[in-house]
Amino acid sequence: MASCVVVWVSSCGSKLENTISSYFSLTTHHQRSVSYHHQKVFASSSSSSSSSASALSSAAVAASVPSRTSEEKVYEVVLKQAALVKQQQQQQRRRSAAIDEIDDDFVNNLDLLNAAYERCGQVCAEYAKTFYLGTQLMTEERRKAIWAIYVWCRRTDELVDGPNASHITPTALDRWEQRLNDVFQGRPYDMFDAALSHTVSNYPVDIQPFKDMIEGMRMDLRKSRYNNFDELYLYCYYVAGTVGLMSVPVMGIDPHSKSSTESIYNAALALGIANQLTNILRDVGEDARRGRIYLPQDELAKAGLSEEDIFNGKVTDKWRNFMRGQIKRARIFFDDAEKGVSELNSASRWPVWASLLLYRQILDSIEANDYNNFTKRAYVGQSKKLLSLPAAYAKAFLGPQKLTNMIMMR
Q: Where are the alpha helices (DSSP H) in 185-306?
C-alpha cells in the first residue's frame, strides 16, 4: 500500500489525506510503555494474538542487545522534537537568521509570501475538505503554517503514489531531500517551498520528521512485505507518525496542560500509527492487486494464513479471527491518542477530534462488511460524517468527560 501521510477523512480519495490528523493526537503514556502495551493487550485479544506475544518477546530480547526496537528509534526523534519545543525562543532566533537568506522576492515582498500561503490553502481546500474546514478555527498564523506542512506532505506522497510514481527513483528522492535541506536553510525553490521555509523559521519544527517521511517513500520503492509488527510500526511512523511531530509545534499545546511535552508528542505518534494501521486494513485488497501485503508476516503465519490466501481474497473464519486482532490493535492506538487530544491548544482541538472520530469509524465499517476488505471498500458515509462533526466540536470545547457527564444527567 502506498504511503498515507495525511489522515483527514474528507471526501477526497487521495491516500495522502489519510494522514495529517494523524499527528495531532496526544496521550499521557510514555512511548516505551505505550507500544509495548499495545502489543501486550493485542497478545490476549484473538487467535492471532500469539504472534503479537512473539513480537513483545522479540522487543524484550532486543532491549538486552545492542540492536534497538523501532519504538526506541522513534522515541529518540520524539525527545529531539520535544527539546526543540522547550527551547522555542532559542530555536526561533536560530531560524530567523536562516530566513534572512531567503530570496528578496519571498521575504521582502509580503504579497508573494501571502500568495504562497493562499495557494497552499487552496490545495488543502481541494484535496482535504474536512481538514481545511477545521483549520478555519485556528489563528491565521497557525492556519497558514499547517497548510504549508500539509502541502509538503502531499507533494512528498505524490512522488511514490501519484501519476508519475512509476518514474520515481531513489535518486529523485535524494534530490527531494536536498531540496528539503535548502528549505530549512531559507533557500526555497518555489512558492510552496517558500511557505514552508517561512513556517519552519517561526515554529520549533525539526527537520528529522520530514527526512523520515522521505525515508518512508524510499521504503515503498524497495519493500512490499513486513516480517513483523516492529517493522510495520517503523513504516507507519515514517509515513504517518512523522506528521504529528511536524504539526504539534504549530497546532500548539494548551498553556494549562500539566502533561509533559514528550507525552504529547507520544500521543501524536499514537494517532498516526492508528490511522496508518486503519489505512492498511481498509486497503488489503487494493494493495494485494498491486502485489503488496502490509500485514505482519509472522502474525499471518500464526493465524494459519498465507500470501495466497490474501491474493485469493476469500473471507474465512481464519481471516475473520485475524482481522479482529488487527482491528483491536488499531483501536488501542486510537484510545491512547484520544486521551491526550485535550492537551492541544483549544483552537486546534476540533479538527483533531473530527478526524479521530471519523477515521476510527472505518474500522466499524470493516466489521460491518464481515471483514471483507478484499472486494469491499470500507468508508464512512456522508451522513455519518456530518453527524460526527458536532460531536467532535463538543468534545473539543467541553472535553469528553464533561460531555459524558452531561449526557448521563439527562
A: 191-202, 208-222, 229-236, 242-251, 261-282, 284-288, 297-302
